[in-house]
Amino acid sequence: xxxxxxxxxxxxxxxxxxxxxxxxxxxxxxxxxxxxxxxxxxxxxxxxxxxxxxxxxxxxxxxxxxxxxxxxxxxxxxxxxxxxxxxxxxxxxxxxxxxxxxxxxxxxxxxxxxxxxxxxxxxxxxxxxxxxxxxxxxxxxxxxxxxxxxxxxxxxxxxxxxxxxxxxxxxxxxxxxxxxxxxxxxx
Length: 187
Fold this sequence. Notes:
α5 (108-117) crosses α6. A hairpin with a 2-residue loop joins β4 (57-63) and β5 (66-73). The strands form two sheets. A four-stranded antiparallel β-sheet has the order 1-8-3-6. By secondary structure, the chain is of the alpha+beta class. The relative contact order is 0.14. Helix content is 49%, strand content 24%.
């Protein structure tokens, strides 16, 4: 049931033949995990891609002897350290369940093999990566907009101008922007 829902959400039935869907489903592991299970530890290459069916997962790292949660993931999301998966370099992040969680676990190598051998899977892969890119961009924008007023207050627009190469007037306008309000419409 869980795998069928994922296949439907990704539109697999529109682009894959039944044998390809069965192959994809055969590579997934359905895991029901308690809270505080580490899926990925920082310092080790990430080799898996997870799909969060139910529960909450956090991505965190240790900075300055403190544990810093970078992101909380909720249902119907793909989760991985994509840079580590793709380059097979040590991950900078740990990934852990927060509450009892149900996930689908895939070996990243299996998914990349599917992408390399089938144009149909390539279309599905593009949908997955578009979703990941959209979610990451949205998360970074949220972080940027939540930090920007304090950053410009603490270091000033002149310092940001040097490091970001934006005009001072542009930074001044950005620092006044509040994401919870409508942007000003110029006529």
